[in-house]
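Practice problem 4.
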């Protein structure tokens, strides 16, 4: 196999060990993989995946290949690739990978197009860059696409906007909307891995710091909870009154970003929107403020505005850039404003990605079987798939639950019996 682009094939053995370590914490995906090996439900299906190239993703890709799929993989973020994992997939599994950690924007889109050269029947996306490129630049490939799956909030937002505009040319399953994804991956996975990335990048003590979380969706909930658990004084900023009220009731201070910017020590955006931290926020931040992002794209922080304000900038630690301003203040940006949990750490723990990627595998199987009957819009993961994943996960954890009796089922489905 010669058609791939990775950093160094000599890293493959380390990648294999990393993949095997992750697999131990992914019992749901392992069970799906065993069935896929027997049934081969994806035989003959070409799949182009645009995902974070991590050990957990490798186990998903191997599962799809064992199900008969012809898979290629490219990175969904320039800083999220684990180069040893990419090398292992190429060397040990003969799966074409186009991903190098730290690749520039030109290379990133070159890799996206290499994945589309595979002429996919199904796309797997994390952020909708693959689908967007397909619709804008590679429309000749659209007629053979059955459908796709989307991993993350930002991508689902983009795809729903495409569907609303009548631009989406095939159905997509929003894996992100599955309860077994956003309840666990977003809340527990993002919460833990984001703090892991911030701490690895800075080696700072969070206890006693004012930690500002922008956005109180599932990712924001997890991040705020875990920052408080480490002793930080947590502030939440929001634009939606419902999650803002929830944050207040959960015991957090809630205020506009312009107020929080004046008192925060560490900032992290998890909104999916752009310019959440903007020029006027930088203008009032403390000297030494640390700014990071755990939303999919680095547009959540207006880095061009900070660039224009700075008289100089320098890399003071790996993944920590210092911007020196005219008034003598210094502001630090972590991981180029990209996903800090993947830029300087290893992303979500395998045990939560187990459920997310189980949704990907079963969602893709569902799309192959049903895609031609579906409309050109964004669909939620079928509830029966979501519940089955939860059931298998509990079984793997050794947790038993009750079962309704026939009498209880009848009662819940009747209306005659009252007080």
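Answer key:
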């Amino acid at each position: 196999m010669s058609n791939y682009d990775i950093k160094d094939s000599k890293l493959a053995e380390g990648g294999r060990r990393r993949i095997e370590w992750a697999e131990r914490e992914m019992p749901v995906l392992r069970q799906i993989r065993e069935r896929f090996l027997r049934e081969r439900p994806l035989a003959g299906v070409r799949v182009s995946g645009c995902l974070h190239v991590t050990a957990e993703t490798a186990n998903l890709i191997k599962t799809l290949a064992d199900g008969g799929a012809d898979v290629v993989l490219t990175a969904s973020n320039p800083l999220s690739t684990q180069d040893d994992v990419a090398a292992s997939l190429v060397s040990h599994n003969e799966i074409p990978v186009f991903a190098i950690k730290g690749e520039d924007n030109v290379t990133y889109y070159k890799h996206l197009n290499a994945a589309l050269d595979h002429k996919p029947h199904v796309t797997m996306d994390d952020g909708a860059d693959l689908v967007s490129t397909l619709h804008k630049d590679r429309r000749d490939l659209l007629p053979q696409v059955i459908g796709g799956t989307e991993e993350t909030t930002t991508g689902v937002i983009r795809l729903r906007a495409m569907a609303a505009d009548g631009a989406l040319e095939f159905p997509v399953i929003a894996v992100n909307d599955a309860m077994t994804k956003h309840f666990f991956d977003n809340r527990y996975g993002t919460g833990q891995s984001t703090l892991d990335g911030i701490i690895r990048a800075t080696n700072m003590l969070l206890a006693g710091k004012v930690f500002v979380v922008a956005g109180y969706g599932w990712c924001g909930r997890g991040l705020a909870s875990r920052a408080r658990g480490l002793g930080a004084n947590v502030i939440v900023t929001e634009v939606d009154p419902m999650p803002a009220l929830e944050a207040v009731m959960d015991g957090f201070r809630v205020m506009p970003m312009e107020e929080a910017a004046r008192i925060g020590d560490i900032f992290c955006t998890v909104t999916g929107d752009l310019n959440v931290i903007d020029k006027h926020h930088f203008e009032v931040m403390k000297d030494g403020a640390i700014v990071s992002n755990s939303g999919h794209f680095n547009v959540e922080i207006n880095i061009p505005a900070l660039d224009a304000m700075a008289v100089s900038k320098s890399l003071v630690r790996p993944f920590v850039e210092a911007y020196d301003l005219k008034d003598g203040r210094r502001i630090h940006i972590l991981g180029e404003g990209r996903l800090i949990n993947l830029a300087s750490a290893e992303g979500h723990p395998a045990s939560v990605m187990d459920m997310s990627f189980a949704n990907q595998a079963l969602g893709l199987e569902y799309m192959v079987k049903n895609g031609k009957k579906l409309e050109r819009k964004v669909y939620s993961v079928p509830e029966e798939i979501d519940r089955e994943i939860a059931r298998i996960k509990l079984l793997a954890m050794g947790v038993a639950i009750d079962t309704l009796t026939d009498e209880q089922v009848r009662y819940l489905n009747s209306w005659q019996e009252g007080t």
